[in-house]
Write a structure and sequence with these properties.
The protein is mainly alpha-helical. It has 6 helices and 5 strands, in the order ααβααββββαα. Strands 1-5-2 form a 3-stranded antiparallel β-sheet. It has a two-stranded antiparallel ribbon with strand order 3-4. It starts with a helix and ends in a 29-residue tail after the last helix.
Length: 169
């Protein structure tokens, strides 16, 4: 598959909050399709469709089959972390929707939130985002800690339209 087509296929594979949630579930622990379906309260056939899309695009990989509770063969899947460096066009609404789905049902004590208003020039904004991305990438690429607890981080940098003037392009 040519590089352009591959990039488009990968972007399409990541264009679903459900698929992004599946990748998160399989990041630190291998999970079977049934486990994924149960955790996301999906029909296993629906889950399998999304799992197959993620496998065919390289975002999930099947591990060695294992025997399930009733002796049936189960295939566990694990995230390849390929999604971290994959560009998704116009990703902001998709990522916000995924974030909102993931925090649905959490109590305020189960989240740590930081919010700050800044007034930075373009150069400073780019520097800040590059530095934050580098720190986040450093932690994202580390091996999971044995005694660690799975957590997620969502970072959004946006214009503040609450009365501040801005210039139109």
């Amino acid at each position: 598959m040519p590089t352009d087509e591959l990039a488009q296929a990968r972007a399409r594979a990541l264009s679903s909050p459900l698929r992004l949630r599946i990748l998160r579930l399989c990041l630190h622990e291998s999970r079977t399709n049934k486990e994924i379906a149960d955790l996301l309260e999906l029909n296993p056939a629906t889950s399998l469709h999304h799992v197959r899309t993620l496998v065919s695009s390289g975002f999930l990989e099947a591990e060695e089959p294992r025997k399930g509770n009733r002796g049936a063969k189960e295939v566990p899947y694990r995230s390849t972390k390929l999604s971290w460096g994959t560009r998704i066009p116009d990703a902001a609404p998709l990522l916000v929707d995924t974030f909102l789905q993931e925090i649905n049902g959490l109590t305020p004590q189960e989240m740590q939130v930081v919010r700050v208003g800044l007034k930075l020039g373009e150069k400073s904004q780019k520097e800040m985002m590059a530095r934050l991305r580098a720190v986040i990438e450093d932690y994202a690429m580390r091996e999971p800690e044995e005694d660690g607890v799975p957590t997620s981080l969502f970072l959004a940098h946006h214009l503040d339209l609450t009365g501040n003037s801005r210039t139109e392009n």
